Amino acid sequence: MTTKKVLVTGVSRGFGKALAETALLQGCRVVGVGRRCPASLEDREAFEFIRADLAALETIGTKLARGLGKKNSPDVVFLNAGVGGPIGSSGEVSVGEIESVLRINTLANKVVLDALLERSSQPAQVVGISSGASFNGSGGWLAYSMSKAALNLLLRVYSHEFPRTHFSAVAPGIVRTAMTESICEQPLDERFPANARIRKAFEEGRAHDPDNAAERLWELLPAILAQPSGAYVDVRNLGREGDD
Ligand SMILES: NC(=O)c1ccc[n+]([C@@H]2O[C@H](COP(=O)([O-])OP(=O)(O)OC[C@H]3O[C@@H](n4cnc5c(N)ncnc54)[C@H](OP(=O)(O)O)[C@@H]3O)[C@@H](O)[C@H]2O)c1
Is residue 243 assigned to a domain? Predict the structure, then answer.
């Protein structure tokens, strides 16, 4: 059997780093994409790093083409890189701030997908890391919610156009990372209840550590593959129901 190749964007820390480490533990070859290679991965024989700032949309295609060269295309792709963006009253969020969040959370994923799908072999499975925020429309999370809702639909549209690849937008549940830690530091405000929900999950020990969340997602890949391509999947509704 040939070794699976997995590509993970946003590999420098948090959930992306844990996804890369989980795939390595599973015996896969891993290509990490990001601005910085974490020390724990840089010397791993089965790991390659493609340095790319995903905000620089126009350079992503060339960097991926150069990094992947003529080698096998990845079999599984995690579109993981993301930013939380501004949290607060929507009227105070500028269009420019929304654009920067959309650039990373939505548009960079389009560019990465285009670069991968034009290769002679395409990935079998693409998992876009989405969020419950893509559905909930929680107060205070305008830019992030818009970007993840758009990501869900981006993947749905691609699923119709590329039937040989399975696409999903997957909400991983609450994971203890820099992104959620910074949300916990926000002052409590009743207009923005999602912040309090995350803080409560932290306090009650219901936030998953990244390794645990990555393992859980890895184990659920076959169940995700069994969903229609283009689906939005919340891991809390698969497998261990009621986890958090
Ligand atoms: N944590 C949760 O509970 C949770 C819940 C639902 C969804 N998610 C999603 O999970 C994904 C990972 O988030 P996380 O929680 O692990 O947050 P994180 O610790 O803040 O990690 C975000 C990752 O994205 C990368 N990234 C951001 N901007 C980039 C850019 N311009 N170019 C290249 N890489 C960039 C970061 O790299 P740098 O180190 O270079 O900044 C980092 O590797 C995100 O899509 C997030 O929306 C997280």
Answer: no
